[in-house]
């Protein structure tokens, strides 16, 4: 932990966050509050997001890493194997066709894992954001129309804050991410916030930028 780092307890009746620069090295800086639409929109506007094991924690944990892992839409990496898969036209990709189905699959596939964060309260919060036009999904379907992969996240301005993805067939989530990036590139999108680095996202063009640089895209 950084010297003088602190985690602030939030008052659910007061809409606001402390300075995330004062948090721990991993980005944890606040606890408590609520998952109201107003608080979530305020949070994501500053690169803050909730993430907590709902079985272990009664309070919400809020994170804002100073080292951000993002994908710029024009930097998305499409491997040879992905190009081959796309050329086969085995799947179709859509946007906001089945937000509930996407988030339900993301939750179901991880529900029994240690550290699972998509409990009922979180799911309901993001569904409310979607109903208000501040969360979006990408759906991948096979030729029969079955939902076989996708992703969802928060959308504010030109930026997409990725939350979770799933695949029921190989590379379906990669296909969803590629289509999202291409759509954003064609429509003046800013960045895709990946929150934390994973080998999967790094292989697709993810890179690190500082929080201060990151905030220039959010303003």
Radius of gyration: 17 Å
Helix fraction, binned, reads 25-40%
The DSSP helix count reads: 7
Query: What is the H/E string?
Result: EEHEEEHEHHEEEHEHEH
The computed structural class is alpha+beta
Give the distance, in angstroms, between the N- and C-terminal Cα atoms. 29 Å
Query: In the residues, how many domains can be counted?
Result: 2
What overall geometry do the principal axes of the alpha carbons give?
A: globular
Q: What composes the largest sheet? A: 7 strands, mixed
Strand content: 15-25%
Strands, count: 11
Low confidence ranges? none
**Can you list the strand order of the major beta sheet?**
6-7-8-9-10-5-11
CATH architecture of the largest domain: 3-Layer(aba) Sandwich
Quick check: average pLDDT? 94
Can you describe what's shown?
- The chain is 31% helix and 25% strand.
- With 219 residues, the chain is α+β, with helices and mostly antiparallel strands.
- The protein has a seven-stranded mixed β-sheet, with helices on both faces. A four-stranded mixed β-sheet has the order 1-2-4-3, with helices on one face.
- The longest helix has 15 residues, at 172-186.
- The two termini are 29 Å apart.
């Amino acid at each position: 932990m950084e010297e003088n780092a602190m985690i602030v307890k939030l008052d659910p009746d007061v809409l606001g966050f402390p300075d995330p620069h004062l948090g721990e090295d991993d980005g944890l800086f606040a606890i408590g509050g609520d998952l109201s639409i107003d608080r979530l929109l305020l949070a994501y506007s500053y690169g803050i997001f909730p993430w907590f094991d709902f079985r272990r924690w009664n309070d919400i944990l809020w994170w804002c890493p100073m080292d951000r892992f993002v994908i710029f839409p024009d930097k998305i990496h499409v491997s040879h194997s992905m190009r081959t898969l796309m050329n086969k036209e085995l799947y179709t990709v859509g946007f906001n066709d089945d937000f509930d189905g996407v988030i339900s699959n993301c939750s179901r596939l991880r529900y029994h894992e240690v550290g699972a964060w998509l409990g009922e309260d979180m799911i309901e919060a993001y569904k409310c954001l979607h109903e208000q036009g501040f969360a979006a999904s990408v759906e991948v379907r096979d030729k029969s129309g079955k939902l076989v992969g996708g992703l969802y996240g928060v959308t504010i301005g030109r930026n997409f804050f990725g939350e979770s993805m799933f695949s029921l067939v190989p590379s379906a989530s990669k296909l969803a991410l590629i289509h999202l990036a291409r759509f954003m590139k064609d429509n003046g999108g800013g960045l895709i916030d990946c929150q934390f680095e994973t080998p999967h996202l790094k292989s697709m063009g993810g890179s690190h930028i500082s929080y201060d640089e990151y905030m220039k895209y959010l303003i």
